[in-house]
Amino acid sequence: MADRLSVNTASREGPAALLAMRGVTKAFPGVRALDGVDFTLRAGEIHALMGENGAGKSTLIKVLTGAYRPERGTILLAGKEIAPRSPAHAQSLGISTVYQEINLIPDLSVAENLFLGRQPRRLGSINWKLMERQARAALARLRIEIDVKSPLASYSTAIQQLVAIARALDLSARILVLDEPTSSLDEKETEELFTVMRRLRGQGMGLLFVTHFIDQVYTVSDRITVLRNGRLVGEYARRGLPRMALIGKMIGRGENSAAQVTGKAPSRRGAAGEGFVEVRGLGRRGWLKPMDLRLRRGQVLGLAGLLGSGRTETARLLFGLTRADTGEVLIGKRRVRLTSPRRAIAERFGYMPEDRRRHGLVPELSLRENIILALQARRGLFGALSRKRQAEIARGFIEALRIDTTDVEKPIRHLSGGNQQKAILARWLATQADLLILDEPTRGIDVGAKEEIEKLIGSLAQRGVSILFISSELDEVIRVSDRVAVLRDRMKVAELSGDEVSGPRVMRAMAETDA
């Protein structure tokens, strides 16, 4: 049963319940994204919606805004039942959404963006003076003074975000949904946004705030609803929910969550080989705060943290998929510039992306072609391998990694998830990678395949490969890693090694208490 506030339904909704979603259920082929979820938003409050990947946050928002139609459940707006048919219909009802990606046109002026599709007209033409005057009035509500004639692109991301909010408010919104609005903002810009959010709360608006940043939740929200695996975990007053308890509820632990996260600790190998890769102050503005990491040969360094903590961002910077604007990377004592994946591959780095289907596999190609892909790319046009040699290499890794297939020419899309993951590992092993960056290598595979992948990671480390291991499953990070760097809100907050690698220590660091 969901762990709710200790009040009954009537008092929880009360006369000030602006929005009440009850028993909302939404399914897709093979998955129930929402399973009887309740959500209440009051007038004059900021309500944070929290949960890890697959929790159901995005689906709930899309049901509320009319992008999805639920199979079951009711939605009450100010006590009246509604059934939004589309985002435009939801807007007409007073429900507006501002998404992480700003859906405005940067080359148009601020005023044109504010009134796009509903420009005031006079004698059949746009009344530019009236539109600009109304634009200034809409921004004045948020206490923003800018030149509304200037292109939107001439302003910072934070101002563009506030313009998007002003547009939503000008549509007579009673509910404002903010979906990851701070993801591209720095600390000063975030605080400016929070000032606006507090002002809107004071005006009686209900704000639904979706974020992965724990610190921000405790800075600006009044209440918190937690979803997990499509179900309601509970609704809580922010003041009554300690950070440690919030993290435990998000990842599926009880009140004594830290003590319950134990995992089967590996036999620590102690001191590993010599230092291989050293990261000093690596970061990118609005993406990841500067951090230090040291990767040793024959050792697994785990990255622990909630979704949005900076795990994938770290992996992408280290593999050159995103360029860092601060810091440096050293291999031994040699400084290297990882400006692209090609440069990273040349340094014998390998990368398994979080989403194997979109970013890791070429589904139209065979198992052989997918395995040989990185090796062939590194050899270049004039180092092409013969078809026979490619097949020999592929068969060797198929046997070594126990990839279940009848034929090296079988399209990789026909393999199971676990075998696809092994094929991506084989791709980088074929390049004789010295560092493997593994982002969620066991996501979406069965228990047996997961155990095989974990054993394979251990055996690779024993052979001297350096491994950066990322997983949203805290038990798995503890089980696999020799050392664990803990991330929170896009920064490294602790590093643990040996017997320090335990559930309580990691969760305390994630919750911003002494590790």
What does the model show?
The protein is α/β, with parallel strands linked by helices and 515 residues long. The protein contains 19 helices and 22 strands. Strand 13 and strand 14 form a beta hairpin. It is globular and about 75 Å long.
Give the N-terminus to C-terminus distance in angstroms: 32 Å
Task: Kindly name the structural category.
Answer: alpha/beta
What count of domains describes the coordinates? 3
Question: Considering DSSP H and I runs of 4 or more, what fraction of the residues is helical?
Answer: 25-40%
Task: Quote the CATH topology of the largest domain.
Answer: Rossmann fold
CATH level 1 class label of the largest domain? Alpha Beta
The number of distinct β-strands equals: 22
Helix tally equals: 19
Strand order of the largest sheet: 6-9-10-3-11-12
Can you tell me the CATH superfamily of the largest domain?
A: P-loop containing nucleotide triphosphate hydrolases
| Biggest beta sheet summary | 6 strands, mixed
Global Rg? 25 Å
Lay out the secondary structure.
Blueprint lengths: L8 H5 L3 E12 L2 E12 L2 E6 L6 H8 L7 E6 L2 E3 L4 H7 L1 E4 L11 H5 L6 E2 L2 E2 L1 H13 L16 H14 L4 E5 L7 H16 L3 E5 L3 H7 L2 E6 L2 E7 L5 H9 L5 H4 L14 E10 L3 E9 L3 E5 L6 H8 L7 E6 L2 E3 L4 H6 L2 E4 L3 H5 L6 H13 L7 H14 L16 H14 L4 E5 L7 H16 L3 E5 L3 H7 L2 E6 L2 E7 L5 H8 L5
Helix pairs in contact: 6-7, 14-15, 14-16, 15-16
Task: List key phrases describing it.
515 residues; alpha/beta; 6-stranded mixed beta sheet; 19 helices; 35% helix; globular
